[in-house]
């Protein structure tokens, strides 16, 4: 009975595979939205104000960072929790595949969230004249919370790795 339960629990990790496939569909949706924004920009490129162009470009950078985050979570999560990716020798392989454990993945996700939040905050600051001061304050507080959380997670990961080296 114990062996059956353990095998069943271990096999249940495959329930995550459709979730990671779902993330790839999210990446497809993000790609479509990215190019939709570019298609909307091109006919108006000569008429668009510089500030509006910068805001749009920041939005595209934001989408790109989210896309990279999706790829990182999708591939590393699959490798860490479901199965090792079996990529042919002759195919291009991302340098970080197989090297990112769940702890480093968590830190990379936190760093990506901080980068995305930074881009969002920059967009808000560029339109600060249209945003109430109390909202600006909350955007900064939320961003600093992300920064502090990412720093704290990285520091705790560093301490944990140092403890493992010492023992």
Overview in brief:
With 167 residues, this protein is mainly alpha-helical. It has helices at 2-11, 17-41, 50-81, 102-126, 133-166.
Q: Name the overall outline.
A: globular
Number of helices: 5
Largest sheet: none
User: Proportion of β residues?
Assistant: under 5%
Multimeric state of these chains?
single chain
Structural class computed from helices and strand pairing: mainly alpha
Protein name: UPF0114 protein B1H58_06545
Transmembrane segments: 12-32, 53-75, 109-126, 138-156
Keywords: Cell membrane, Membrane, Transmembrane, Transmembrane helix
Subcellular location: Cell membrane
Topology:
Layout: H1 2-11, H2 17-41, H3 50-81, H4 102-126, H5 133-166
Helix pairs in contact: 2-3, 3-4, 4-5
Transmembrane segments: 12-32, 53-75, 109-126, 138-156
InterPro entries: UPF0114 (IPR005134), UPF0114_bac (IPR020761)
Family: Belongs to the UPF0114 family.
Q: What would you note in describing this structure?
A:
With 167 residues, this protein is mainly alpha-helical. The chain folds into two domains: 1-86; 101-167. It contains five helices and no strands. It has helices spanning 2-11, 17-41, 50-81, 102-126, 133-166. Helix 2 (17-41) packs antiparallel against helix 3, helix 3 (50-81) packs antiparallel against helix 4 (102-126) and helix 4 runs antiparallel to helix 5. The relative contact order is 0.09. The mean pLDDT is 89.
